[in-house]
User: What shape does this take?
Amino acid sequence: MKRFITDDFLLETKTARRLYHEFSENQPIIDFHCHLSPSMIAGDVCFDNIGQAWLDGDHYKWRAMRTNGIDELYCTGDASPKEKFIKWAETLPATIGNPLYHWAHLELARYFGIYDLLSPTNAADIYERASSMLRTREFSIRSLLRKNNVEVVCTTDDPADTLEFHTQMKGNSELKMLPAFRPDNVIKTDDSDKFREYILKLEKVTGEEIRSFEALSKALDQRHAFFHEMGCRLSDHGSERFFFSPCSEKEADLIFRSLLKGQQVSADETEKYRMAIMLELCRMNHKRGWTQQFHVGALRNNNSRMFRKMGPDTGWDSIGVPQDAFRMSRFIDALDDSDQLAKTILYNLNPADNELMITMAGNFNDGSRAVKVQYGAAWWFLDQKTGMEKHFRDLASFGLLRRFVGMVTDSRSFLSFPRHEYFRRILCNFIGWEIEKGNIPDEDELIRPLIEGVSYKNAKEYFGF
Assistant: This one.
């Protein structure tokens, strides 16, 4: 049978093939946003089987399996890892056209040297072959990262996290694992009991009583400083949208005290509190020279019944409505106006917002450095071939593709790093076609820095790792 994953997979022109193999293929990986387990990296864990490695926590696959009529027993239920893997193999042929089909076969090829097309007929055999490899030290988690030439990986960590596993990894010469500060829980005020529980958690880790907005800001700044000492240089914020409603310190304090008492607050008061605390967090990012990331546009936990049963990040999210450009503009401007705007990356989940985001970023690039504010990689539902091509086209048209910091996995799977290869192949194919059509000069001194930069070097320079 003819191989599907070849050396020239997705590279449709001679130029694309040259660009990829000469300029991109061998670049290291800086994965500056993911949801991998720090404890598993620090412990250099070996998986028992590919079902565990491939399906645990991967809501991309769970959504596809459910859509294919697979019972929840085989997604998040109590079925054995092998049974789940076989049900995934039943689903995979139906994912043709979906990035899952490409990712799955890239991962089988790159990690295990398996080039067969996964299907129900060979699922049991592939399960045993891959699982036997995963149980060896050659396939431990850090070995898997080395196989993909991963230089830096930034996890996603709550301000209350101890970062004990990052401490264990400090000074590791093979892999730099750094925390990223994700303070979303301080704006999740809809469930008053959970909000108060979180404030108590912050009190415990800081050793300080938090009964005022000022005390909350000081506690977060204490944790921010600790993260900085641990090598953190990135924050990440995952709200549905930007917040804007001018709020005085006194108003913010009164609203926070009401939240602590479990009292009902109005929609406008909620907006005021969220904007006030987000501004405080962003000022901390600026003070310590961090980069802040905003992932907006997801409509989360749409299925109330399944959310109550399974909780967040289990596959019930979708693309939300377009962003409110005015609120976004006013929020970013509030930081810029006081000269406290940190390096900023904007990610959106609704492709209708591409142009909005790119042109919004341009409003706040003041020449103090290259792309102080920039448009981040095609994210979540958009990190597939069509979404990436639109992303490249839009960024090239309205911004500077040459300065783009490139791809992240945004993944919970340790087998997801071939997504960087996938991204690089699509990038080189896009640029290759533009060269062959005569839209871009075929000059290495022009193209090489673009391909090498977007693949790796721009992120290396931008974050200063």
Notes: DSSP finds 19 helices and nine strands in the chain.
